[in-house]
Design a protein that fits this description.
heterodimer, A: alpha/beta, Rossmann fold, 2 domains, six-stranded mixed beta sheet, 13 helices, 18 strands, B: alpha/beta, eight-stranded mixed beta sheet, 8 strands, about 15% strand, globular
């Protein structure tokens, strides 16, 4: 069924369809309409779940961590400083290998205060051991939430479903609302290998030592380093699991795409723009404009950001002349995080082949600064002519 | 009606394996052992980093026989809420959820989450075992360290501020049950747990825990010192049931006796109080006497 709703509602509908049974959230703009919607579903009885109105984001994820440890399918959502306030719990959730799904409605982080969109919040959580998926429209938001539960529960690793505040969260767009029966067919009930319960006592997340120790049967058990190694290993194999998810999703819902990247007019392009989220759809307008001028350009959206699909990205960019990375966040003191990741992937897979493209980095829309399509087109055009700067170039800056 | 348990009627089933990693003479080991007996087998535990994390042992061996979730320092009460929420979705209303946190994990870093859960009225029992400092990290001051006590970060002057009254803060949340207990009176703790199990919402227990390395005394004197804290009227055993305050056990008997042991008898047993001057002690004694005059008045 096609409906017209905002991005936050798309996320809430996805969570409802997935039958999450414990939801905990704390209000922060622009996430609030999403969690308000869920509290409505629960209070009205449309959704059989416990909705916990916690007193902080730290507690929101604490509730999810504990509820998930006890075997519930859980959900939370946040933005900006809320996500940063959770940071300790974010690390805990992945270390404890819990399949939590959390929407991050991207917003700038303070100081100074700014409630508008950029992606510094989720980018700052890049190295926490979570899977990160970025959405570019409302259909992707609802579909990604559904796929996220399937992937997270397969690999026991939590997932952040990231989408741009306001640009997606508060705008209305038509999208297909999947049927409940189809979602049920795609996503079976959550049955973890072990859930904390009185009938089968266990002590979870106890203190580990630097080295391995024997258990009571005299067998050597994993210690911290092994547990962390397995998280990394299984994050890398998650790339294959994501491809499976895409395939299964296509079989049931009849729509699919590349699980990692979303390319637009890239096949014969010499110059490719890359970014995360809704920005890459805006860049399609620039691509069309530049194509009319005869410049062979394309744009690629990175959907799966962690684990980083380095091979898929490098092979898609092989032989391109210029890669222009547009980012709404950066690793302060260096450059955009995606730019560094991309350079690393290109170096790993294309160094010495003579196919190594040049990479340029543009910073846009920090703190919600308006991103004018004309400016994007102009910078894109300039970048195709040669390197603008060694340092990241800020677009729309008014110094 | 209150049930009075004796050492002979205490259940023999143990939920803490012998040979824990607690320090010799640890008051928590007593309170935890007896507390778990009262909570029983159908219980799920939540524990933040604290002395109890150490007591429970190092992966992959654990000393607690009940399911236990170790959580981050500030999140104890919220985690208890999370477990409770899952139990509700499973239609399980019989399992007790119990959180055990230290005084730092309760009165300082964990207070926000605890207040949140108490305000929501989430149905679990929260135990604050109060050894009056961050003993697990080497005996630094906490919100519940008493005035005058030397700690690792109040080394030359002792703590200059009053002990934070956490049970009073929790009572202000209008809980169905708030209790103050002591490891030196484990049967009082046992009975209180049993008596509050059926009450709705969040239940709060504050347990005074003598700590040999943190307080500076020979481990064999832990119970004596815990009792002296009560007999001097310095630390009171009580419960607040639906807003009704009542002294219990030894503290209740003190009202009948009308005779408190002078508080310096308590202070002189522990090296952490060695900087207390006579005038400071007199000041503390006066405050104790005023508090007890109130108790006597109520009794008349």
């Amino acid at each position: 069924m096609h409906i017209i709703e905002n991005g936050n509602a798309a996320a809430a509908l996805g969570v409802k369809l997935c039958r999450a049974s414990v939801i905990a959230a704390y209000p922060i703009t622009p996430q609030t309409p999403l969690t308000e919607k869920l509290s409505e579903y629960v209070e009205r009885g449309d959704m059989k779940a416990e909705y916990i109105p916690v007193e902080s984001e730290h507690s929101a994820l604490a509730v999810c961590i504990a509820a998930s440890s006890a075997g519930a399918r859980v959900f939370t959502a946040t933005s900006a400083n809320g996500l940063l306030y959770m940071h300790e719990q974010v690390q805990w959730a992945s270390g404890a290998r819990l399949p939590i799904v959390m929407c991050v409605v991207n917003r700038a982080v303070g100081a100074p205060w700014n409630i508008w969109n950029d992606q510094q919040d989720s980018i700052s959580q890049r190295d926490t051991g979570w899977i990160q998926i970025y959405c570019a429209d409302h259909q992707q938001i609802i579909d990604t939430v559904i796929k996220a539960y399937w992937i997270a529960e397969k690999v026991s690793i939590p997932i952040m479903v990231c989408y741009d505040g306001y640009i997606l969260s508060h705008t209305f767009m038509p999208f297909d609302l999947p049927d409940q029966e189809k979602v049920d067919a795609f996503l079976p009930p959550f049955k973890p290998d072990y859930a904390l319960r009185p009938e089968e006592p266990a002590n979870l997340n106890t203190v580990t030592l630097p080295d391995v120790r024997m258990d009571v049967h005299g067998e050597l058990a994993h210690s911290y380093m092994e547990i962390r190694y397995l998280l990394q290993e299984e994050l890398r194999t998650t790339l294959a699991v994501a491809a499976d998810a895409e395939k299964r999703f296509a079989e049931i819902f009849g729509r699919c795409g590349d699980p990692y990247i979303e390319s637009y007019r890239c096949d014969d392009a010499d110059h490719v723009a890359i970014g995360l989220g809704s920005l890459t759809y805006q860049l399609r307008v620039s691509v069309d404009a530049l194509r009319k001028e005869g410049i062979k350009v394309g744009v690629m959206g990175v959907r799966f950001y962690r684990p980083f699909p380095d091979e898929a990205i490098a092979s898609a960019l092989k032989g391109k002349k210029t890669i222009i990375v547009f980012e709404k966040a950066l690793s302060y003191g260096y450059e955009g995080a995606l730019t560094s990741d991309l350079k690393s992937a290109l170096y790993e897979h294309l160094a010495g082949t003579g196919n190594l493209p040049s990479v340029q980095n543009f910073i846009v829309g920090i703190g919600g600064r308006e991103i004018r399509t004309d400016d994007l087109t102009q910078m894109f055009r300039t970048a195709t002519l040669g390197r603008v700067s060694r340092e990241p170039t800020w677009i729309g800056l008014k110094l | 009606m209150q049930v009075k348990t004796t050492i002979l009627s205490l259940p023999t089933e143990e939920f803490v394996h012998p040979g824990t990693r607690a320090c010799t003479g640890c008051g928590l080991a007593i309170a935890y052992r007896v507390g778990l007996k009262a909570l029983g087998k159908d219980t799920m535990l939540v524990v933040p980093p604290s002395c109890l994390t150490v007591l429970q042992g190092l992966f992959p061996v654990a000393s607690t026989k009940l399911p236990c979730l170790n959580v981050t320092f500030a999140s104890t009460a919220a985690a208890a809420t999370g477990i409770l929420a899952t139990l509700k979705t499973q239609g399980n209303s019989h399992t007790t959820v119990a959180a055990w946190a230290g005084d730092g994990g309760t009165s300082d870093i964990g207070l926000q989450a605890l207040s949140g859960a108490a305000e929501r009225g989430d149905n679990f029992i929260y135990f604050c075992y109060d050894n009056e400092g961050y003993m697990n990290t080497g005996a630094q001051r906490s919100g519940t360290t008493p005035i005058g006590a030397i700690t690792a970060n109040t080394p030359f002057k002792g703590k200059l501020q009053q002990k934070k009254d956490v049970p009073a803060i929790m009572a202000a949340h209008k809980l169905s049950y708030v209790a103050a207990c002591s490891a030196a009176y484990p049967l009082d703790l046992y009975d209180k747990i049993k008596n509050c199990l059926h009450l709705p919402g969040t239940k709060y227990f504050h347990i005074h825990i003598p700590c040999p390395p943190g307080w500076g005394y020979d481990p064999r004197y832990g119970i004596k010192i815990g009792r002296l804290a009560v007999e001097t009227g310095y630390y009171d055993l009580y419960e607040i049931v639906n807003g009704e305050f009542k002294l219990t056990a030894a503290s209740e008997k003190l009202v009948e006796k009308r005779k408190l042991v002078p508080v310096h008898e308590y202070f002189r047993t522990q090296s952490r109080f060695r900087l207390l001057t006579d005038s400071q002690i007199a000041d503390i004694q006066q405050k104790i006497d005023e508090k007890w005059a109130g108790y006597y008045n109520k009794d008349e």
